[in-house]
């Protein structure tokens, strides 16, 4: 199952309250989504502007730094899309999985966390196949990548059974049903129509949607409303949203939607729940476009951080011993948000296996050469990178 702090997908019998509720797929205009873009024109323009800026900056970077920024974005997406569902996977294993899949490791790294393995493989495949048509076999392939290690899950197949697929929160006996998906018997038909819609709205399609964030928003909502898999719908749905963005723009996007969503996932779930009550989805479109724009801005910060790392290493690489280099790399792995709580002597000892006197000496030396900045005092002493 997928878990989050706010929602739990479970199977349970229908109840009277649920039978009285009409969801989007139960309404006569399903799936003819309608929306007004007047209120989001400025946000759409800002998104297009940010996308162009990022593309320009990325092209100007050395090839190795471009790749570093791309990998960092995919890692963030893989880790955060799992975190939204309450799964916390190994970041390092995701890095190894992505680098292995991209053929960047001469000798493939061992990946212990099988969930991280699948998440990394999915990110690479979404990026590599962004221009291709969406197919049922591709969705099944993604599902197998993501859940091949999950016991009791029929990976690579639509959900089956007669019990309804519901999104529920609350304790047993006091459950609140937020959404109920179409019955399993109609999933195959609904997904055939969804896949046709996705391909028809692609560039050059007979129902082309030219604005990338709009198409991505509708695609994600449409897929999540069908909820076709037994598990993994949120993660596959966000992969579809990324594919729609990249395909419509005409190149792989450099952003992590999940990283932005995870920062305030209660807002995401509330917006999704509201959108699943009607097929008039102007508010959902506005929410999603704003989220995509925030994700673009975070991507800009990531690129800037990548450039700062390059300058930092060019300046200090020859002055660092192996212990210091290991600790610095650990701090840089935290990304633009920074190493939580800063580096301390205790953390340094844990990372490098150094003694306390050695840790203290190494950290002081890093301050003296200008690599770290000392903050706080006494027991609260910690160090941040001088980027």
Automatic annotation (TrEMBL):
<dbReference type="GO" id="GO:0051301">
    <property type="term" value="P:cell division"/>
</dbReference>
<dbReference type="InterPro" id="IPR036597">
    <property type="entry name" value="Fido-like_dom_sf"/>
</dbReference>
<dbReference type="InterPro" id="IPR036388">
    <property type="entry name" value="WH-like_DNA-bd_sf"/>
</dbReference>
<dbReference type="Pfam" id="PF02661">
    <property type="entry name" value="Fic"/>
</dbReference>
<keyword id="KW-0131">Cell cycle</keyword>
<dbReference type="InterPro" id="IPR003812">
    <property type="entry name" value="Fido"/>
</dbReference>
<keyword id="KW-0547">Nucleotide-binding</keyword>
<dbReference type="InterPro" id="IPR025230">
    <property type="entry name" value="DUF4172"/>
</dbReference>
<dbReference type="GO" id="GO:0005524">
    <property type="term" value="F:ATP binding"/>
</dbReference>
<feature type="binding site">
    <location>
        <begin position="231"/>
        <end position="238"/>
    </location>
    <ligand>
        <name>ATP</name>
    </ligand>
</feature>
<keyword id="KW-0067">ATP-binding</keyword>
<protein>
    <submittedName>
        <fullName>Cell division protein Fic</fullName>
    </submittedName>
</protein>
<feature type="active site">
    <location>
        <position position="227"/>
    </location>
</feature>
<dbReference type="Pfam" id="PF13776">
    <property type="entry name" value="DUF4172"/>
</dbReference>
<dbReference type="InterPro" id="IPR040198">
    <property type="entry name" value="Fido_containing"/>
</dbReference>
<keyword id="KW-0132">Cell division</keyword>
<feature type="site" description="Important for autoinhibition of adenylyltransferase activity">
    <location>
        <position position="85"/>
    </location>
</feature>
<feature type="domain" description="Fido">
    <location>
        <begin position="134"/>
        <end position="290"/>
    </location>
</feature>
<feature type="binding site">
    <location>
        <begin position="268"/>
        <end position="269"/>
    </location>
    <ligand>
        <name>ATP</name>
    </ligand>
</feature>
């Amino acid at each position: 199952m997928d878990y989050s702090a706010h929602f739990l997908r479970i199977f349970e019998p229908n109840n009277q309250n649920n039978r009285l509720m009409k969801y989007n797929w139960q309404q006569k205009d399903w799936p003819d989504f309608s929306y007004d873009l007047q209120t989001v024109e400025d946000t759409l323009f800002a998104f297009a502007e940010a996308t162009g800026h990022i593309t320009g900056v990325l092209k100007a970077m050395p090839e190795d730094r471009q790749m570093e920024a791309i990998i960092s974005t995919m890692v963030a997406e893989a880790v955060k899309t799992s975190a939204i569902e309450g799964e916390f996977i190994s970041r390092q294993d995701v890095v190894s999985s992505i680098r292995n899949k991209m053929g960047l490791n001469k000798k493939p790294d061992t990946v212990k966390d099988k969930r991280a393995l699948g998440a990394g493989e999915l990110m690479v495949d979404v990026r590599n196949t962004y221009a291709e048509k969406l197919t049922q076999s591709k969705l099944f392939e993604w599902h197998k990548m993501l859940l091949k290690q999950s016991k009791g899950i029929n990976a690579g197949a639509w959900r089956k059974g007669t019990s309804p697929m519901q999104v529920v929160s609350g304790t047993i006996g006091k459950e609140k049903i937020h959404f109920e998906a179409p019955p399993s018997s109609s999933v195959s038909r609904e997904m055939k129509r969804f896949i046709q819609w996705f391909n028809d709205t692609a560039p050059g399609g007979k129902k082309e949607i030219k604005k990338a964030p709009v198409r991505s928003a509708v695609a994600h909502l449409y897929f999540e409303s069908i909820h076709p898999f037994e598990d993994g719908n949120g993660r596959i749905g966000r992969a579809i949203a990324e594919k729609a963005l990249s395909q419509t723009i005409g190149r792989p996007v450099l952003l992590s939607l999940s990283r932005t969503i995870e920062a305030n996932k209660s807002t995401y779930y509330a917006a999704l729940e509201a959108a699943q009550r009607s097929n008039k989805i102007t508010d959902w479109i506005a929410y999603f476009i704003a989220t995509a724009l925030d994700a673009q801005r975070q991507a800009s910060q990531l690129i800037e951080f990548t450039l700062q790392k390059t300058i930092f290493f060019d300046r200090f690489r020859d002055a660092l011993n192996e212990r210091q280099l290991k600790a610095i790399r650990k701090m840089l792995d935290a990304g633009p948000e920074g190493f939580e709580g800063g580096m301390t002597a205790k953390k340094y000892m844990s990372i490098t296996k150094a003694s306390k006197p050695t840790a203290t000496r190494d950290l002081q030396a890093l301050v003296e050469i200008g690599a770290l900045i000392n903050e706080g005092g006494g027991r609260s002493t910690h160090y941040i990178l001088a980027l």
